[in-house]
Design a protein that fits this description.
little secondary structure; 2 helices; two-stranded antiparallel ribbon; 2 strands; binds iron/sulfur cluster; single chain; Alpha-Beta Plaits
């Protein structure tokens, strides 16, 4: 018989603790959020849902914990309103 999966699936994991998880110093791309384009609807929040490290806030305006963001770009890929774009460098503003 298949093992029962927990009834309570969490949307995201949490970032690794300590220096090992702190990617803000070396990522090459950074998400930049255009708050005007964001739907600001709790029914969306795909950026929060899909971030593999749980770094996107579940609040509006959307905030990203850049200390741990690894710049994978999943949040930008999943945003249906193209409110998130990936920019080169470690800052949400173009370097
Ligand atoms: S996925 Fe895009 S539109 Fe949806 S809440 Fe996040 S930033 Fe806003
Ligand atoms: S770029 Fe990746 S790690 Fe950073 S906030 Fe988006 S989904 Fe999360």
């Amino acid at each position: 018989m298949a093992e029962k999966i927990s009834d309570t699936l969490l949307a995201a994991s949490t970032p690794a603790a300590g220096e090992a998880g702190r990617t803000g110093d070396w990522r090459s791309q950074t998400p930049s959020v255009d708050q005007e384009k964001c739907s600001k609807k709790e029914s969306c929040l795909l950026c929060w849902l899909y971030c593999p490290d749980g770094l996107v806030s579940r609040t509006f305006p959307i905030e990203v914990n850049l200390e741990y963001c690894k710049g994978c770009g999943i949040c930008a890929e999943e945003c249906p309103r193209k409110a998130i774009t990936m920019v080169d460098g470690r800052s949400p503003q173009r370097d």
